[in-house]
Amino acid sequence: MPNTPLPAPPRPAGASRAAPTEDDREHAAARLAAAFADDALTLDQFEERVAAVYRVASVAELEALTADLTDESPPLSPSRTSRARRGVTAASRPAGAVTDTVPAHDRRFAILANLEHHSMAVVPRQLALAAVFGNVEIDLRNAKFGAGETEIHVRALFGHIAVTLPAGTRVDQQASGILGSVECPPSPWSLPRRDAPVVRLTGHALLGAVEVRYAEPSALVDRGLAGLFPRVDRPRGRS
Fold first, then answer.
1. How many other C-beta atoms are found inside a 10 Å radius of the C-beta of residue 121?
2. Any idea what DSSP says for residue 159?
3. Considering only Cβ atoms within 10 Å of each terminal Cβ, which end of the chain, N or C, has fewer?
4. Is 32 within 8 Å of 48 (Cβ atoms)?
5. What is the rounded distance in angstroms from the CA atom of residue 134 to the CA atom of residue 156?
6. Which of 56, 49, 53 lies closest to 27 in space, CA to CA?
7. How far is CA 106 from CA 22, 66, 74, 171, in A?
8. CA gap 151, 148 in Å, rounded
9. pLDDT tens, residue by residue, 185-223
């Protein structure tokens, strides 16, 4: 995965007793942040270990902070998996929905970084988005959704996540804010449509923000009528 920190190069014998360099500490902090974004660490564990990264005096102590972490990202919890895979009858499937080629899960994250104007062709059953001291903006207005419910799981830690959905998407907002905000503001395009995707938003914003935006219908854009109504699918403070 492009944002996953690369493994540290092998060290010569005796190097573990040396004092870690700034690069060593930054590499360890990045691995911990990636593990937190993957739900492999709790918030308390993440905060405790990051604080220790800048306190330990040897490479061996630093490596011990990430020794139990793997490079593979765990899937979402089984309870969320079973709910996300529930189907619906053919009569209520979204128009143009993909039924056979939808990935089970995928993730996008930014750690001390910025991931803007990112789009996807097909939305997985479970899409995990994480921003740790960073910014993630993903545009799904033209993406294909699977039949049934799609879960978008967000984790914003001192970060910002913005998701643009097709007009009329039915959103079941279950995410929470902890000294942060989760916003699904109403707009002319937020009224649910029977043929639109169904999205369940889970996760939390801790000292951060999550925004759900609704794109204007393509018919308006094609006819040059975009912008006649208040827009909520543009990043704040941008033209």
1. 10
2. S
3. C
4. no
5. 8
6. 53
7. 32, 23, 11, 19
8. 10
9. 887 777 888 788 999 999 999 889 999 999 876 544 444
